Amino acid sequence: MDRRKIVAAFLMFAVLCLFQSSLSNAQVEQRVNFYAWTDKPYYSPGEKGTLFLVVRNDRTDVDLKIERIEIYYPWFSFTQNGWEGNSTKEPNFMIKIRGENPYFGHDNFAVPSDGRAVSGAIKVKIYVDKTPFQYPEALNQYYEIPVNVAANPQYTQIKGLDKIETLLTIQAILTIVCTVIIASTIFLSVRRPQIVWEKEE
Question: What does the angle CA 17 – CA 22 – CA 26 come to, to the nearest 5 degrees?
């Protein structure tokens, strides 16, 4: 009888331990982490660069296959050559649970040399084969990586320099005339004859 109680208590303890571990696993946040950076802190128009990508599956429930990665650069627009400034990768890469087999990739890009070359954020969306099927999960939300493009110097032409030259000449002449007037006033006030008081008789 004592042996049955010990076995029953042991089984109850084992069931409670399993229940506790399943609860702790259920509370772990299921997420896929994304990391990205560029090979340089800033670029000049016309320069080439590389965007490095890392996708890590930190979920504990299921392996995921990366089906597609969409990348949009700040100069993404429709030109006479079609859509430019975007890239789509289809790695079909399996990322295992608990970050065991992360995806490492890169994307080469060229900063345009026309007026589209602006600083901003590179936007990235990752599509996978299982729910929620995309990361970040919101439809219009993207991972954003800042990219800096050095601005071209802006040259402006100053008009009316001949008028400014005339104005500065007049100002110089007036300054000289005023200086002469002030100097002569001081000179004449110093050379003024002294007043001598005569005694009255």
Answer: 150
CA dist 37 and 50 (Å) reads 9
Q: Residue 36, SS3?
A: strand
Number of other CB atoms surrounding residue 195 within 10 Å: 5
Question: To the nearest whole number, what is the mean pLDDT of the chain?
Answer: 84
Q: Find residue 88's DSSP bridge partners.
A: 70
Global pTM value? 0.61
- In angstroms, what CA-CA distances link 63 with 25, 57, 125, 201? 16, 8, 18, 129
**Which amino acid appears at position 58 of this protein?**
D
Domain holding 64: CATH number?
A: 2.60.40.10
> Left (φ > 0), alpha (ψ -120 to 50) or beta: where does 195 sit?
beta
Residue 97 has pLDDT above 90, yes or no: no
Does residue 17 lie within any of the structural domains? Answer: no
Domain count, the chain: 1
